[in-house]
Design brief:
Blueprint (H helix, E strand, L loop, with lengths): L2 E4 L9 E7 L6 E2 L4 E6 L4 E5 L4 E6 L6 E3 L3 E6 L6 H5 L5 H13 L7 H6 L7 E5 L9 E7 L6 E2 L4 E6 L4 E5 L4 E6 L6 E3 L3 E6 L5 H12 L12 H16 L17 H10 L17 H6 L3 H6 L21 H16 L2 E9 L1 H11 L8 H15 L5 E3 L4 E3 L5 E3 L1 E3 L2 E3 L2 E2 L7 H16 L5 H4 L4 E5 L18 E15 L2 E15 L5 H16 L7
Parallel strand pairs: 20-24, 24-25
Antiparallel strand pairs: 1-8, 2-4, 2-7, 3-6, 4-5, 6-8, 9-16, 10-12, 10-15, 11-14, 12-13, 14-16, 17-26, 18-19, 20-23, 21-22, 25-26
Length: 544
Amino acid sequence: MAEIIRMPKMSDTMEEGVIAAWLKKVGDTVKPGDILAEVETDKATMELESYDEGVLLYIGVKEKDSVPVNGVIAVIGEKGEDYEHLLKGADSSSDKKEETPKSEEKSPEPAKAEAPSESIDTSNINATVITMPKMSDTMQEGTIASWLKKVGDEIKSGEIIAEVETDKATMELESYDDGTLLYIGVEAGDSVPVDGVIAVIGEKGADFETLLKAQQQSSSEPASAPKEESAPAPKAEPVAETKSAPASTAPAATTANGERVKASPLAKKIAEEKGLDIRQVSGSGEGGRVVKKDVENFVPATATQAAPASAGAPAIGQESYKEEKVSQMRKVIAKRLAESKFGAPHFYLTMEINMDKAIEARKSMNEIASTKISFNDMVIKATAAALRQHPKVNSSWLGDKIRYNEHIHIGMAVAVEEGLLVPVIRFADNLSLSQISAQAKSLGGKAKNKELQPKDWEGNTFTISNLGMFGIEEFTAIINPPDACILAVGGIKETVIVKDGQMQIGNVMKVTLSCDHRVVDGSVGSAFLITLKNLLEDPVRILV
């Protein structure tokens, strides 16, 4: 019996999915577990698996088209089986509604706006417009870090055509089509909004200019000014020529053996701006990867020899500066933290914690632990235990209501080259110290290597920022939305303390709790810190 395959909800925020590529075609035999298609959601590109056995009778969504959650994608059944009656009552008609009602709804504006959309026929143009995919839940635009292909290059499905810098990481943009790279619409280093045009891939000689006109026409249909539609036409040709220039530098970054140089997109960009040969720069990153600081600190041999030649001038120094485009990650950090700082009324509570017993306990535990336990692991475990006792701190402000989370997911701020990432340790109160240590090391490594997946950075209910390892004694942190609080942890400092009326040497750590006063009051935050202090000053309690 034929079964309708609908678009599943693949993430908590997903409203629709885009069929990135069909891996099966009508008439193919399908078995349970076979991958039917690749679906691009708001968070990642995921595989759509079949749970039925039979023949693929019908495909209702073309590649690159979107369909809402629960919308009809395909039908699987027995060969030759009649499935039309299934589609009559299904939601597949929603695709048709998107074409007619949308134009009807907009028609009260100038009626002539409909005419241009009907006049551009792209059915005979064998090419596809590549747009900026949404690669993370907070992504609004992406920056082309580098082009790995140039105009005129032959592209095969599965090849990486560019590196895209999002607000979370630098990711690879994969082609799902075979053909020639006909047009590049964004220079390396420039940003483009989600769904904005990046490139065109198709048959050599295909009329991509008309395709771009149609693309802009469809995207500007809701607007009332169709006059601008003719503007891109004269720009299309020169853009294709000038934009291909940065891409031509990509093959040059190879070693003498023809191997591609391992370097971050930012390092490549800085090297290009400085006129440096990236192949001469030694990398200090993972696996010899060249990172930003390597390029900034690199001094070419010719530069040191040239210096004495100009030494005759009496000048002591020269004013200079350099400017860099703001990375996607830095843009989002700025936006989110500015909203938090100026939108949530912050107040701060600082407390000193005697870490003498914690130092002894850690030393004893690490003698038998399979994974070495850090002070940060102990803080995470103690914080999770304290949150269990003070659930009001484990909360979020939602405008017209306050959410008190019954689960404890602790975000762990990790500094990376381009900014800050916050991977999440889930159900931290239910984990042992060894498990927390293992997860913290794994997530920290993934963050630094840009290997985090959406599930790794979503869902935090409380955040910890620890700068103690950098020698910082005390600081305040900005609340990480949607949390109501964040704990700033300083370093452990050996100092003079008074105990039982006697001065002695002790190890003290300062912590500062930043609170959203709309949710957490001073007494609530103070009670949480007292519990945290008691747990860390007698760490046996966090093992119970």
